[in-house]
């Protein structure tokens, strides 16, 4: 049985649909991110799991038990917010021990578990410090220790790293992942940052307009996006226009590709810039003309136009000549790197 199951979860605010019939199964110990643009419903989903927002329709099953009518403080969940939400008048140790005190855990066990949680998040020696005398990263560690000390059934993280600067955020991402792996707590992260979702997650749930667009491992949603929305939300991509003959063949400008599953008529194909290569001399390919080239240190970024649409491609700065603006090029790619996009919710 999956650890957490969301079944047809729905929520509207007045006339605004925030989450529409969301289904998701999360396995024990999994790290799952809800990823999407502002307003796509990810926070509302997390808040329904936490119990802070009432569910209109659907179930939230934790180990098979429906949480919908269980009070938030009885769900046994650990939650970390973007704003840390620490108690300013309490020391680090008091902040962390608070949840244990509320649960009536005796003093000796409180102390042991608080010290363990502080060690887990790298805060040994900070017990008597007050939050205002700590950096953002340290405060977020306190918030994480406070969520974990109760040994929650689920860890819910709502944009926990977005107040930190870029370098610290990256450090905290790998630490957070390590901590989560070491304790194995099933974790749901809300983020609008695709890099963060890809770095941390076992699976990513890409959301748009209150619905799930795609669920999959990071390399799957990045490399095999199901829709134009997913392709464009997870980094740079090329969406090329072609025509399918309905019998497994797609024409893209000067290129003919074997691609199963497309009905006859116009189709859209996504291919990442780093997966486009120059075709070998004499080989078939997609003819294009370079519009611009920009040097980026480790690589060049080229834009080009083709009969299948505008393109961006990357060339590693490996000493080989790079075509100039106006030059004709022929591009190729492995059919496995191209994704047939689903019709619908683009942009
Ligand atoms: N308390 C509320 N009252 C009215 N509408 C709300 C409320 N909370 C959220 N909404 C609306 O529901 C939709 C989903 O909001 P939600 O906060 O879940 O999205 P989000 O993806 O988490 O966005 P963000 O990253 O900006 O927090 C939005 O259209 C939002 O305006």
Automatic annotation (TrEMBL):
Annotated signal sequence range: none
Any one GO molecular-function label of the UniProt entry: ATP hydrolysis activity
Q: Name the Gene3D superfamilies on file.
A: 2.40.50.100, P-loop containing nucleotide triphosphate hydrolases (3.40.50.300)
> Do you know which SMART domains this protein is assigned to?
AAA
Give residue ranges for domain ABC transporter.
4-234
Keywords of the record? ATP-binding, Nucleotide-binding, Transport
Under InterPro entries, the record lists: AAA+_ATPase, ABC_SmlMolc_Importer, ABC_transporter-like_ATP-bd, ABC_transporter-like_CS, Mo/tungstate-bd_C_term_dom, P-loop_NTPase, Transp-assoc_OB_typ2
Query: Key word Phosphoprotein present in the record?
Result: no
Cross-referenced PANTHER family: SPERMIDINE/PUTRESCINE IMPORT ATP-BINDING PROTEIN POTA, SPERMIDINE_PUTRESCINE IMPORT ATP-BINDING PROTEIN POTA
State what protein this is by name.
Putative spermidine/putrescine transport system ATP-binding protein
Q: From which lineage does this chain's organism come?
A: Bacteria, Pseudomonadati, Pseudomonadota, Alphaproteobacteria, Hyphomicrobiales
